[in-house]
Each structure stands twice: as C-alpha cells, then as structure tokens.
Amino acid sequence: MTWEDMSEERFLTLAAAYGADMARWPSGDRAAAEAFVAANPKIVEACLAAERLLDAALERYRERDAAAPLRARIIAAAPRERAAGAMWRWLTGAGLGLGLAASCAAGVAAGYTLGHPAVARLMGPALLDSGQLSAVADPAGDAAAS
C-alpha cells in the first residue's frame, strides 16, 4: 500500500480510534499510514500531537476500587418498606385465600345438595324410605330406583 491509498479522513479516523502509536493500528493500514505520515508531515503532526496527549492521559488513569462506598450509597438511597404497605399486601393475600376457601366450600355444598338422585340414595337411604323426595328429584322411571 502506498500513501496515496490512505486519505486524510481515513488517517484521522484511525488516529482517533487507535491513538498516536501506529503499532496499535490494524496491520492492513499501518504501511499506508506510515507512508502518509512521511508524505504529509504538516497535516499529520497536529493530529498525532493531540492523540499523544490523550494516550498519555489514558495511561495515567487508574481505576479506583469504589465497590464498598458505592454499595453503601445504593443501600442508603434504596426506598424503605413501609409497615402499612406490608400490612395491605398481607391483608390482600389473606382475603384472596379466604375467598378461594369459601368458593371451595360452596362448591362442595352445592355438589352434595344438587347431586344426582342415585348419589342421594347412597348417602341417605332413610330419606328415600320416608317419601320426602319429590317426583322431580326421583322420577318413577329412574333406573336407579330398581
């Protein structure tokens, strides 16, 4: 690759992305970039000077361990649970449970009272003998009566 293959815009883009040290640049662009630097020293020097300053600043930067103070700040800023909110959640859950239990009990009671006459005979033969069942509940032609 020659310096003519490298445009000024491409050079500036690579310098901004990879810094002033061309050893960090993609290997396919290094030869053309070095040729561009040799052919255009005035254009390149200002760009690379700014990138060298940024590279030096990034090398001096050291990450601090902020885990413990950050954790303490997050916990301190977290909303506190209110006792009234917890009570309403408990009451809602208890009310839902009671409602489901009442539905179950009503279903069982309806099943016993509205059951088929054959089931009624199995559960209460004394009631059948006393004649207290109506003709609607125990029609004469019922197969269970025989």
Order of helices and strands: HHHHHHH
* Mean pLDDT figure: 77
- Please tally the helical runs, counting DSSP H or I stretches of 4 or more residues: 7
Can you tell me the residue ranges where pLDDT is under 50 for at least 5 consecutive residues?
none
Q: What is the CA-atom radius of gyration, in angstroms?
A: 44 Å
List the helices and strands and how they pair.
Blueprint: H1 8-18, H2 27-39, H3 41-60, H4 67-77, H5 83-113, H6 117-123, H7 125-129
Helix pairs in contact: 1-3, 2-3
Description:
The chain is mainly alpha-helical. Among the domains are: 3-60, no CATH class; 96-130. Helix content is 67%, strand content 0%. The chain is built from seven helices and no strands. The chain starts with 7 loop residues before the first helix and ends in a 17-residue tail after the last helix. The mean pLDDT is 77.
Short summary:
By secondary structure, this protein is mostly helical. Helix content is 67%, strand content 0%.
